[in-house]
Amino acid sequence: GQPPKGKKRGGPPLGPWWKPGAKKKKKKNLPRRARWTPSAEPNLTFTIATLAGKDEEPWFSEAVATNLVDKATLDAAFSRATSKSQDFLEAEPYWDQSTIPVNTYKTKSPFIGKVTSVKRIVGENATGETCHIVIDHQGKMPYWEGQSYGVIPPGTNPKNGKPHSVRLYSIASTRYGDDMTGNTGSLCVRRAVYWDPEMGAEDPAKKGICSNFLCDATPGTELTMTGPSGKVMLIPEENPETDLIMVATGTGIAPYRGFIRRLFTENTPAAAAYKGQAWLFLGVANSDSLLYDDEFSTVLKNYPENFKYDLALSREQTNAKGGKMYIQDKMEEYADEIFAKLDSGAHIYFCGLKGMMPGIQSMLESVAAKKKIDYEQWMKKLKGNKQWHVEVY
Ligand code: FAD
């Protein structure tokens, strides 16, 4: 089925209410409720319990009697939810990168953020555990899409008795955060574990300190943070026609989630202006390990001309030679298009584990050789034009 007609660029993503073929439910004859408008009552404060009716649900007033919602909070929520454009965190003009925040907080003067939520986002048969973590920064630690936050895990390093060192995590939300308030930032963190081949089991004594701390965090957990840092992975927004090729393995998807939300699902000036094509290549082990697939599939449905989404599932798909489908194999299938796009000024991004680069580079080199292109010169030109962006760890 097709999404409902009349959807404009930059509008909110389709919600779970929309299903192909779903029919509107008929309204039952329910009594009409008064509509709440932000300015109807100047000093409105109410308890949910009074509205619910104490007699119908005797337990209810007890449960929520102290839950006071003042009018200012309701007003703010209302205007946030209904405001037409999302532009309160934009530069002037929006693509100008000269005011980008860098290292606002450092190891010696860190920011204390608070975890809002931690959610496992991979299926049962995923290889390892990956969590989406939303952090409240109260609007005090603004960042741009493509930057990273640093997290200093609590405790000391037993090797030297000093506090643990900072670990970097690519930010997986746009500058507005997942809730559009500009007060949060999200991370996509894979729990690092150590597999002991001799024991044939995980050794908990050697598990990754910071990633486990983050994946085990609960709402309210305080985080000692640095950053935001990095300018390598920014979107070149000055020319909204620029094609982007985004290559990720695993948590390397994080910055691109921010890019894709900014270019397609938010109501920002960047989304309104974007006329290029954004092409995502994601490599993971199997379909249970996919990350943010629902979000990307929705964007693909809504913007089939401007968004492309290709997957390499190494344990489920086979490449042209019958081997495992790695990210470079999927890219090779489209090598002609990729080379043509890069020749016309596309920017290419790589993010994920360091180990992804050698395979990709030798694939590109062999394609270049077939095309009689001098690989070194070709690469030099891309780097010189700032079209080549790498953040691997
Ligand atoms: P550490 O405690 O630092 O341990 C590192 C590894 O060593 C672990 O795998 C651990 O199991 C193993 N180990 C521990 N003890 C032993 C031992 N005795 N012998 C052998 N092995 C041992 N990660 C993400 O998940 N998401 C991101 O978006 C992300 N973005 C990044 C962006 C940048 C720019 C960089 C540089 C890194 C990024 N990382 C990201 C990686 C992240 O910074 C951490 O390196 C990662 O989470 C592991 O840190 P840790 O503290 O959990 O592990």
From TrEMBL:
Pfam families: NAD_binding_1 (PF00175). Residues 1-38 are annotated as: Disordered. GO terms for molecular function: ferredoxin-NADP+ reductase activity. NADP(+) binds at residues 170, 190, 251, 314-315, 324, 352-353, 391. Belongs to the ferredoxin--NADP reductase type 1 family. Keywords: FAD, Flavoprotein, NADP, Oxidoreductase. It comes from the Eukaryota. Residues 1-10, 21-35 have a biased composition (Basic residues). Its cofactor is FAD. It catalyses: 2 reduced [2Fe-2S]-[ferredoxin] + NADP(+) + H(+) = 2 oxidized [2Fe-2S]-[ferredoxin] + NADPH. PROSITE patterns: FAD_FR. This is ferredoxin--NADP(+) reductase. It is an enzyme of class 1 (oxidoreductase). Its EC number is 1.18.1.2. Gene3D superfamilies: Nucleotide-binding domain of ferredoxin-NADP reductase (FNR) module, Translation factors. InterPro entries: FAD-bd_FR_type (IPR017927), Flavoprot_Pyr_Nucl_cyt_Rdtase (IPR001709), FNR (IPR015701), FNR_nucleotide-bd (IPR039261), FNR_plant_Cyanobacteria (IPR035442), OxRdtase_FAD/NAD-bd (IPR001433), Riboflavin_synthase-like_b-brl (IPR017938). Residues 108-235 form the FAD-binding FR-type domain.
